[in-house]
């Protein structure tokens, strides 16, 4: 996320405001106290006390940091490193020796120690001890050469790397001394030790431990914020959309340079749980994002790429206040053409805040993706902007920033995008491949010969959507009101709808239809053609219960079988989703069941009875049907999207087929008597990209074997309870007895039933999810083995199995 | 000779090329005719010129243009028959195309809209099976033609349905027809009087008004979006060649016994033929469709 103008706050960074010798000297104390490197017995190398004139000027020693301190610090650190990198080799080695273990056998000294009289001198400037000078560590006494013996063949670049790490380490140590917050101090100390260890062992610093590895949450803030731009502002014209994109980038940039408040200062305004979460995230931020910005021997991650909703939620309020303030104060320093970013910022922050608080916000859904075309556009724009960026950044605030960040940091950042791309391509195709496929799909459509013979069988709703586009038909939600005046048009339409329902549903008493259509709690989605209602769905939303009841649904006789019914229902679904309703319920009479099934309704009610009982009108001789709505599906587009996807997929398969087409001699091993061979040994399979099926990564699942067994047991208990209470559970409640079914045990060797499962659960047998699922699966497979498909038992097994899977899925216990 | 999908497509492709050529020729001829007409008009004003040869030339050109247009139309007709032939063969071969109801209804509508228009020569009267003109008594519908057939459905109830002729059984004087709607019981063998051939051409109201049913005639008309014919009254005649009739279907659920006017294409409006029970009983029993 570069490219947006940057607004950053002052920071209190690890500022390099210290001389190396000071750090080293302090560090010796620490080591002497046994605080540092594990296993270090004596005090390691020492260095010079007195400040050399060259360094003296740089010492600011924790004075109040001014605006731009971050940049200054980075610059200072960089300068110091450069200075050390330019030292003559013997001096470098001397410096290294102070942090390198003595190579003599059996010696446990971890760094060459300067003679007492030279401790005030700095190896980075004038002091260069002889290689045969002996170490003043009481338990060592070996020469300096012994401390650097292992560095004989080291390349100059890896030597500089080591020196860089040493400087980072010294800086960390100084910062540790200055910082007041205890938690932060601990983190600095941890990182200091880590670096110390790395220098000793000459390994790359890798942070391991209970913090976990980045990214910590999916989707990351960057992705979600981009989704937000699409979700909220896609309808705007390109210029406005461009502005909003830049607003988003500015926000992300601000976030990436934001200094989070320490957990101790936030303790007051967060709940206990939030506070402990925040503490974890704060530590992660320090370790992976903040400190590495200054210590480039650690790998740096962008805050916005590794954190997600949880962190943003906790810091958002304070952070957005700061950003708003900043926007006001920076206003005049912004170039004219970028001012709109400042003015749009509050609006953007408000939208983001709303999406942060909403539990079902689509932008935080890991599966949400703006359409590829949008992403591609954004990328194109990004590319167009990129070449101009250096010039632009000079014009924006703090023009010289980029240059001062320092080379190594840039290198690291550059690595990031490639990493991301490769992980992206795992779950999706690169957009250009999709674009190419789409192009050839549309080309093959125009040259399709079959069309000459017979017209294409277009999808059910395509004609309807074309009519809607031409405004030949319109969809309106209308309803009566007692408190507000109802306009004439609405009343006329309601009358028309009442007639449509009356003619199409002759069984319904007319009075009843009038009563409901004109009831103020009911609304009707009307299909209007030539200003006449020709169909509609009369429904009653129950916002408190989260469902909508469909009361009447009809299309006038002469307009049927045109796809209007499907489109009406899709509109109602989208309308409901927009109002936060996720369930549609209806009592369907026998003629209507087919229609509702086509619209995704099922007789299998997934909604708990108390949610709707007493609210919905119950009809005799009608079947209750239920449809659950997915908040991120736009139903009116659904058929077209699926069609396109399948066409693209077919095209891609065809392309791939052309690429890999090859005739092979065929397998002979079976003739030779082999009963079976592993799939992967079939020639060619691997070449075309077949991979052995792998279980999804364990960590991806919320509840796992490794998780709390008690928690798991509670989940199993609730699933088992629901399964037992299901209407189709009756055949499986108890073990089958040989008295009832004499030949049962001739056929079934491993009987299982819900009662036995309950007992096993109590005994703590179900230590893993697999064991639990295996027993349940056994119940159903036994049943289907013993009974024929046309029996009630068989049907019960199928239905209960589906229900079981639903329940498990709800608790995140089912594999995707 | 079996007509494969490929050869049918090829034949159609050839016809389309011919049509394209014809269209170019028509374009040239029209331009030439326009020229001669304007010179004719000029010469009429000039009075001293001889008009007769010019007039003759223009007439010649006009009839040539007419011939070319008719030739192009004939090609279109050929394409229709090739497609029809291919469809029949595919059906006989047993591959029934699975076609959705919505698409079926669309096809029913489309085939009415693209029914050839009768454009007569001077003084020529509309032939049988053009618009409302009935077929002659001994006429036998061809294989693949659409007819209205009084057939028993699954529920043993007789209805005038939209069907297609599979063959005519001369010995028995009976038609073998297939229901257009695949979801129904598909084959029926019906006596000739239970089968009414549908018009093969549209009549142009502007030139052949006599070939249309007058207002208030009792007819049988295909109820929109269904494949059944019901008793109806002509409410409004088509005013142009592309317009539909507007008819009032009998419907007991309406107070006056007739539904609101609905549009029905010329192809699906035929003379009323009383049956024992009357043709259909309105749309009330169709509400589950």
TrEMBL record, chain A:
Residues forming the catalytic site: 549
EC number: 2.3.1.48
Reactions catalysed: L-lysyl-[histone] + acetyl-CoA = N(6)-acetyl-L-lysyl-[histone] + CoA + H(+)
Lineage: Eukaryota, Metazoa, Ecdysozoa, Arthropoda, Hexapoda
GO CC entries: ATAC complex; centrosome; nucleus
Pfam families, per database record: Acetyltransf_1, Bromodomain, PCAF_N
SMART domains per the UniProt record, alphabetical: BROMO (SM00297)
Keywords: Activator, Acyltransferase, Bromodomain, Chromatin regulator, Cytoplasm, Cytoskeleton, Nucleus, Transcription, Transcription regulation, Transferase
One Gene Ontology MF term: histone H3K9 acetyltransferase activity
Bias type Low complexity, positions: 16-43
Record's protein name: histone acetyltransferase
Xref: PANTHER family: GH11602P, HISTONE ACETYLTRANSFERASE
Record localization: Cytoplasm, Cytoskeleton, Microtubule organizing center, Centrosome; Nucleus
Segments forming domain N-acetyltransferase: 484-630
Domain Bromo: 724-794
Gene3D superfamilies recorded: 3.40.630.30, Bromodomain-like
UniProt region (Disordered), positions on chain: 1-76
Highest taxon in the source lineage: Eukaryota
One of the GO BP terms on file: positive regulation of transcription by RNA polymerase II
Biased composition (Polar residues): 44-54
Family: Belongs to the acetyltransferase family. GCN5 subfamily.
Transferase keyword on record: yes
Organism field: Drosophila gunungcola (fruit fly)
UniProtKB/TrEMBL annotation, chain B:
The name this protein goes by in its record: SGF29 C-terminal domain-containing protein
Domain SGF29 C-terminal: 137-278
InterPro entries associated with the record: SGF29, SGF29_tudor-like_dom, Tudor_SGF29_rpt1, Tudor_SGF29_rpt2
Record carries keyword Nucleus: yes
Origin organism lineage: Eukaryota, Metazoa, Ecdysozoa, Arthropoda, Hexapoda
A Pfam match: SGF29_Tudor
Superkingdom classification of source: Eukaryota
Location(s), subcellular: Nucleus
Cellular compartments per GO CC: ATAC complex; nucleus; SAGA complex
Keyword terms, alphabetized: Coiled coil, Nucleus, Transcription, Transcription regulation
UniProt-listed PROSITE patterns: SGF29_C
CDD domains referenced in this protein's UniProt entry, alphabetically: Tudor_SGF29_rpt1, Tudor_SGF29_rpt2
């Amino acid at each position: 996320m570069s490219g947006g103008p940057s607004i950053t706050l002052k920071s209190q960074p690890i500022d390099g405001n210290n001389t190396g010798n000071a750090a080293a000297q302090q560090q010796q104390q620490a080591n002497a106290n046994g605080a540092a490197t594990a296993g270090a017995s004596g005090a390691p190398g020492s260095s010079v006390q007195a400040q050399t004139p060259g360094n003296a000027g740089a010492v600011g020693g924790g004075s109040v940091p001014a605006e731009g301190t971050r940049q200054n610090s980075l610059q200072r650190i960089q300068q110091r490193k450069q200075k050390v990198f330019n030292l003559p080799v013997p001096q470098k080695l001397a410096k290294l020796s102070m942090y390198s273990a003595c190579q003599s056998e059996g010696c446990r000294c971890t760094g060459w120690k300067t003679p007492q009289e030279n401790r005030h001198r700095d190896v980075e400037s004038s002091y260069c001890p002889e290689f045969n000078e002996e170490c003043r560590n009481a338990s060592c006494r070996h020469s300096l050469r012994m401390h650097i013996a292992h560095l004989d063949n080291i390349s100059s670049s890896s030597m500089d790397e080591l020196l860089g790490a040493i400087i980072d380490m010294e800086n960390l140590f100084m910062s540790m001394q200055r910082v007041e917050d205890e938690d932060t101090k601990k983190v600095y100390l941890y990182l200091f030790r880590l670096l110390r260890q790395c220098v000793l062992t000459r390994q790359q610093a890798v942070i391991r431990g209970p913090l976990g590895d980045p990214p910590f949450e999916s989707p990351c803030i960057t992705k979600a914020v981009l989704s937000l731009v699409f979700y909220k502002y896609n309808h705007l014209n390109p210029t406005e959309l461009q502005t909003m994109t830049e607003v988003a980038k500015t926000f992300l940039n601000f976030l990436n340079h934001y200094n989070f408040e320490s957990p101790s200062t936030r303790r007051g305004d967060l709940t206990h749980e939030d506070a402990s979460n925040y503490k974890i995230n704060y530590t992660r931020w320090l370790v992976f994002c903040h400190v590495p910005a200054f210590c480039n021997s650690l790998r740096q991650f962008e805050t916005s790429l590794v954190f997600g909703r949880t962190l943003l939620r906790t810091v958002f309020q304070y952070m957005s206040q700061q950003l708003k303030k900043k926007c006001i104060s920076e206003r005049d320093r912004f170039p004219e053409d970028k001012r709109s970013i400042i003015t749009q910022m509050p609006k953007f922050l408000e939208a983001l805040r709303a999406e942060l608080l909403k539990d079902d916000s689509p932008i935080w859904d890991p599966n949400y993706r703006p359409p590829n075309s949008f992403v591609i556009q954004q990328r194109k724009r990004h590319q167009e902007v990129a070449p101009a960026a250096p010039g632009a950044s000079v014009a924006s605030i703090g023009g010289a920033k980029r240059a001062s960040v320092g080379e190594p940091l840039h290198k690291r950042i550059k690595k990031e995008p490639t990493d991301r791309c490769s992980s992206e391509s795992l779950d999706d195709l690169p957009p250009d491949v999709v674009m190419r496929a789409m192009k050839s799909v549309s080309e093959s459509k125009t040259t399709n010969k079959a069309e000459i013979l017979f017209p294409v069988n277009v999808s059910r709703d395509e004609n309807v959507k074309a009519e809607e586009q031409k405004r030949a038909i319109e969809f309106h939600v209308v309803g009566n009101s007692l408190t507000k005046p109802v306009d004439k048009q609405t009343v006329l339409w309601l009358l028309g709808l009442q007639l449509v329902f009356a003619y199409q549903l002759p069984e319904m008493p007319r009075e009843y239809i009038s009563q409901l259509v004109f009831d103020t709690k009911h609304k009707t989605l009307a299909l209007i053609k030539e200003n006449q209602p020709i169909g509609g769905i009369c429904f009653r939303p129950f916002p408190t219960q989260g469902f909508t009841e469909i009361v009447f649904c009809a299309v006038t006789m002469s307009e049927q079988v045109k796809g209007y019914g499907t489109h009406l229902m899709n509109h109602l679904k989208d309308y409901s989703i927009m109002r936060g309703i996720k369930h549609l319920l209806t009592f369907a009479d026998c003629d209507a069941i087919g229609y509702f099934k086509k619209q995704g309704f099922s007789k299998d009610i997934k909604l708990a009875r108390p949610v709707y009982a007493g609210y919905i009108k119950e009809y005799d001789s009608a079947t209750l049907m239920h449809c659950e709505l997915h908040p991120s599906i736009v139903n009116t587009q659904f058929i077209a999207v699926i069609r396109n996807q399948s066409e693209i997929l077919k095209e891609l398969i065809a392309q791939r087929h052309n690429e890999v087409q090859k005739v092979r001699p065929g397998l002979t091993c079976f003739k030779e008597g082999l009963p079976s061979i592993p799939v992967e040994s079939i020639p060619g399979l691997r070449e075309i990209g077949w991979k052995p099926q792998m279980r999804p990564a364990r960590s991806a699942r919320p509840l796992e074997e490794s998780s709390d067994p008690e928690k798991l047991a509670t989940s199993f208990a609730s699933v088992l309870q629901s399964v037992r209470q299901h209407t189709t559970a009756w055949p499986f409640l108890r073990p089958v007895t040989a008295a009832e079914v004499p030949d049962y045990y001739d056929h079934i060797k491993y009987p299982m039933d819900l009662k036995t499962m309950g007992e096993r659960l109590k005994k703590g047998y179900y230590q893993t999810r697999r064991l639990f699922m295996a027993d349940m699966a056994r119940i159903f497979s036994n049943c289907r083995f013993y009974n024929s498909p046309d029996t009630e038992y068989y049907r019960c097994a199928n239905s209960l199995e589906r229900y079981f899977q639903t329940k498990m899925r709800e608790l995140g216990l089912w594999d995707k | 000779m079996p007509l494969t999908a490929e050869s049918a497509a090829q034949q159609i492709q050839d016809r389309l090329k011919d049509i394209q050529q014809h269209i170019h020729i028509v374009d040239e001829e029209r331009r030439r005719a326009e020229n001669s007409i304007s010179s004719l008009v000029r010469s009429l004003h000039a009075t001293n010129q001889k008009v007769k040869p010019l007039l003759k030339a223009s007439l010649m050109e006009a009839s040539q243009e007419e011939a070319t247009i008719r030739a192009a139309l004939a090609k279109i007709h050929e394409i229709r028959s090739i497609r029809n032939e291919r469809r029949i063969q595919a059906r006989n071969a047993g591959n029934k195309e699975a076609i959705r109801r919505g698409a079926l209804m669309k096809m029913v509508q489309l085939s009415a809209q693209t029914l050839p228009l009768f454009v007569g020569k001077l003084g020529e009267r509309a032939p049988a099976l053009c618009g409302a003109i009935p077929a002659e008594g001994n006429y036998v519908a061809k294989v693949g033609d659409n007819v209205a057939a009084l057939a028993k459905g699954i529920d043993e109830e007789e209805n005038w349905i939209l069907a297609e002729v599979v063959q005519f059984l001369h010995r028995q004087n009976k038609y073998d027809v297939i229901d257009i709607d695949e979801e129904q019981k598909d084959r029926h063998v019906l006596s000739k009087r239970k089968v009414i051939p549908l018009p093969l051409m549209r009549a142009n109201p502007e030139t052949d008004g006599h070939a249309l049913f007058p207002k208030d005639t009792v007819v049988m008309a295909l109820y929109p979006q269904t494949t059944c014919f019901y008793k109806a009254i002509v409410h409004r005649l088509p005013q142009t060649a592309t317009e539909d009739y507007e008819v009032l279907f009998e419907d007991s659920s309406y107070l006056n016994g007739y539904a609101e006017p609905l549009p029905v294409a010329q192809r699906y409006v035929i003379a009323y033929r009383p049956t024992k029970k009357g043709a259909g009983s309105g749309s009330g029993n169709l509400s589950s469709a």
